């Protein structure tokens, strides 16, 4: 079984304990943060193992590449600390189980990954994707299984991810554009952290969008709209991609309004909290986030994750903002009218 690469010395030498100090759901000072992470590494008990809400953000806060969230999950699993009722965990694990059923487009050297989310196929239309579609793959055989780290279950992805890597490799693709953060992070963060080799190039669709918008710059008509962006928890596993959000907004003439809960201080959509930790945490996080959005004066709330979009769309609409996926916003900028666009 694959083992997490974690260096205790990096924690001991850490100057700020940022992984826990910056956490928006736990409260730690630098000294206690370092001590707790070392205790966790050594297999000792720590309140963090009980209190972590799986927002993934510590993976981004740690600038030393030491994967604090992955370690927390490993120790939770070792100790049998559940983050959700067993029935919910079993249901999710069953959903992603490979069953030999999948869908392939006309596979070329570059392909789009829809993971196991059919919604992604519905939005990859128009000029932005004409250079790669219909080269795509979809189904459990290509599902990254990263979602199970929400449930403190690392064994599932350690078993399935190597099979997914091999399934993609067999397609003969050289480059894969991932339409979901967790899928991209599986191959650029988790796989290296556990010593898994990835024989193809992984590209986040933010980077792909920015490059396509650059190539189609003559078609762009500045949108001149104010937007807020709901950053999903899964994007914390691939923080390098987040830099493209502002670059894309600048390219299409949209103003990303500054607010309290964005970038490194972004709040989760809350949907996973309800299933795992109850209504009160979800309501608190959603309430603060939505109030912050409403005060911004934005016309649109832009989403990256369909899970976030499903959870928050009616709530942002009730506050006078139009919910829209980032891809649809970009299509609007080049004169296309996607469903849900204006």
In brief:
The protein has 342 residues and is α/β, with parallel strands linked by helices. It has helices at 8-12, 18-21, 30-41, 47-51, 57-61, 68-79, 86-95, 118-123, 154-170, 181-193, 205-215, 243-252, 271-277, 279-296, 306-317, 326-333, and strands spanning 102-104, 110-113, 136-139, 175-178, 201-204, 225-230, 254-256, 300-303, 322-325.
Notes on the protein architecture:
The protein folds into three domains: 8-79, no CATH class; 95-209, Rossmann fold; 219-333, Rossmann fold. By secondary structure, it is an alpha/beta fold. The protein has 16 helices and nine strands. Helix 15 links the parallel strand 8 and strand 9. Strands 1-3-2-4-5 form a five-stranded mixed sheet. A four-stranded parallel sheet has the order 7-6-8-9, with helices on both faces.
List the helices and strands and how they pair.
Blueprint: H1 8-12, H2 18-21, H3 30-41, H4 47-51, H5 57-61, H6 68-79, H7 86-95, E1 102-104, E2 110-113, H8 118-123, E3 136-139, H9 154-170, E4 175-178, H10 181-193, E5 201-204, H11 205-215, E6 225-230, H12 243-252, E7 254-256, H13 271-277, H14 279-296, E8 300-303, H15 306-317, E9 322-325, H16 326-333
Parallel strand pairs: 2-3, 2-4, 4-5, 6-7, 6-8, 8-9
Antiparallel strand pairs: 1-3
